[in-house]
């Protein structure tokens, strides 16, 4: 595996992937220089790409709903992103615990915004759904009428990953975190409030 197969400079086109090496439990090394191959992510302490900051300025002005999941909202610059959305934008936190609450006065002084407000009498746009992120997304999808589609999508993606990794499902005894597909959707008819008989 070469560096360019995982981490590509923006000027290069993507080479064909090597899933057998990516999904194996062997630490991938560059075939040319034998150094470790780094995934295309930013690790803690590394600089974010310039594109992150330009997108942050333009994209957050356009959001009509902000979903925040699986985070302590402690690390900058991500912790302050919640304050970039317009004041009229609802914000939904799907998390194991409430996060992002801060003293509004201190936040304004430091230029970080006021944080999340779930419990005050002034709270009008922040909602916390507490629990596992997968279950929170499933609950949201169910409320939106998308539960079956989400379950089907997850099943298809898991099957695709399994097929790319050698047509064998991961062995739970050797995998650090085996994937679990969501439970199958119930075949019973769905009834919305307005469809229920009176």
How does this model look, in words?
The chain is α/β, with parallel strands linked by helices and 198 residues long. It is built from 6 helices and 3 strands; from the N terminus they run H-H-E-H-E-H-E-H-H. The chain has a 3-stranded parallel sheet with strand order 1-2-3, with helices on one face. Helix 4 links the parallel strand 2 and strand 3. Helix 5 crosses helix 6. It starts with 18 loop residues before the first helix and ends in a 34-residue tail after the last helix. The N terminus and C terminus are likely disordered.
| CATH C-level class of the domain at 49-130 | Alpha Beta
Q: Residue ranges: pLDDT <50 for 5 or more in a row?
A: 1-6, 8-16, 172-178, 184-198
Major sheet, described briefly?
3 strands, parallel
The radius of gyration over CA amounts to 21 Å
Name given to the CATH homologous superfamily of the domain at 49-130: TPP-binding domain
Shape: globular
